[in-house]
Write a structure and sequence with these properties.
Shape: globular
CATH architecture: Alpha-Beta Barrel
Strand content: 15-25%
Mean pLDDT: 95
Radius of gyration: 20 Å
Structural class: alpha+beta
Distance between the termini: 48 Å
Order of helices and strands: HHHEHHEHEHHEEHEEEEHEHE
Largest sheet: 6 strands, antiparallel, barrel
CATH class: Alpha Beta
Number of domains: 1
Number of strands: 11
C-alpha cells in the first residue's frame, strides 16, 4: 500500500494528543537509559511511532503482518523535525522491519530474515572496506579471514537496540552537514548508534531486475569483535571470499547497496523458502577454487 510523506505527516499530526504517546516516551526513556542524549526529542519520536503503529493496524485488512519501506530524507527532517531511525529500530525490534529510503525489496528481505530466524533483523549498507591498519591491528580477532573477506556493515541508526553494544541516541552526521551546515544538530537528531554485537549473521537480498525477474543472494558470516571507529549502526563483518562474491554477484547482478541482515546463520531456511517461491537465480559466496560463471579462470 503506497503512502507519501504527506500522508505520514498527516497521521503524525493527528497522533499528537494520543494518551499512548506519553507511555511510549517512558518506554523509550527506559530503553535508552544513559544513552538518551536528547530526552526532549522523545515526545516527537513517540508521536511518530504511535502514528506508524496505528496506520499499520488500521490498514492490515486481511493480512496478519506488515512492514514499511519509508522515505526518510531529506524533506522528512524539515517537516517532522527529526530523523526516524530510532523509531525504525524499535519497530524492527518487534518484528516489523522499516526499510530506509523507500527500499521495498529491502523491507521484504528483512521480513523474510525475521521469519527464518524468529529474531529481529536489520538493513545495512555494504559499501565500505576495512582500513589496512585496522586489519593489521586486529589480526588476532580476525583469524583466518583475509582482508578482502571483511567489510563495514553500516546504516544511519536503524538497527534494533538489542543487536548493538551500548546503543545511544545521536544525530545523523552526514545529514547534519547537508541539511544544517554542520551546526549544532536539531532536525537531524534521532539516530540509534553503536557497535553491532559480535556473532553470527546472514546477509540476504531478494530483488527484482528492471525487466521483472526475481533474483537473490545469501551468504553466512559473522560480526567480529572489532571497534569500527566510525558512526551509525555499524560493525566489522566477515564473510569468506566476500571480495569475489561482491564483484561477481552484488555488482555484476546489479543488486543495490542495501542488504538484509539476519543475526544468526539462516541460509538453509532462506534458500528453501526461495526455492518454494520459484526463484531460480540464487547466488551464494563460492569457496576458493570454485569459479563464478563470469570469473576469469586464468586470473
Amino acid at each position: 500500500m503506497e503512502n507519501s510523506e504527506l500522508d505520514l505527516y498527516d497521521i503524525f499530526l493527528k497522533a499528537k494528543d494520543a494518551l499512548e504517546v506519553k507511555e511510549l516516551v517512558e518506554e523509550m526513556s527506559g530503553e535508552l537509559g544513559s544513552g538518551n542524549r536528547y530526552p526532549g526529542l522523545l515526545e516527537k519520536l513517540a508521536q511518530y511511532e504511535w502514528a506508524l503503529t496505528r496506520y499499520m493496524e488500521d490498514n492490515l485488512g486481511a493480512s496478519e503482518y506488515g512492514v514499511f519501506a519509508n522515505k526518510c530524507w531529506p524533506a522528512f527532517e524539515h517537516h517532522f523535525g527529526f530523523v526516524p531511525c530510532y523509531v525504525n529500530s524499535r519497530l524492527a525490534s518487534r518484528g516489523v522491519p522499516v526499510a530506509c529510503e523507500v527500499d521495498i525489496y529491502g523491507a521484504l528481505s528483512e521480513y523474510m530474515a525475521v521469519c527464518a530466524t524468529e529474531q529481529p533483523a536489520t538493513i545495512l549498507d555494504i559499501n565500505n572496506t576495512v582500513p589496512e591498519d585496522m586489519f593489521q591491528k586486529n589480526k588476532g580477532k580476525i583469524g583466518a579471514y583475509k582482508h578482502t573477506d571483511l567489510f563495514m556493515g553500516f546504516h544511519c541508526g536503524n538497527t534494533p537496540a538489542g543487536c548493538m553494544m551500548k546503543p545511544e541516541m545521536k544525530y545523523q552526521l552526514i545529514m547534519n552537514r547537508l541539511l544544517e551546515g554542520g551546526q549544532d544538530p536539531d532536525i537531524t537528531r534521532g539516530t540509534l548508534e553503536g557497535r553491532i554485537r559480535p556473532g553470527q549473521i546472514t546477509i540476504f537480498r531478494l530483488q527484482s531486475t528492471p525487466d521483472a525477474l526475481l533474483r537473490s543472494y545469501i551468504a553466512e558470516g559473522k560480526v567480529l569483535d572489532i571497534d569500527p571507529q566510525s558512526f551509525g549502526s555499524i560493525g566489522v563483518f566477515a564473510i569468506k571470499e566476500m571480495g569475489r562474491f561482491y564483484r561477481h554477484v552484488l555488482i555484476e547482478k546489479r543488486f543495490p547497496h542495501h542488504t538484509g541482515v539476519a543475526f544468526k546463520h539462516a541460509g538453509k531456511k532462506l534458500f528453501a523458502a526461495l526455492k518454494m517461491l520459484g526463484i531460480e537465480d540464487i547466488s551464494s559466496n563460492q569457496p576458493r577454487g570454485v569459479l563464478y560463471q563470469t570469473e576469469n579462470p586464468f586470473a
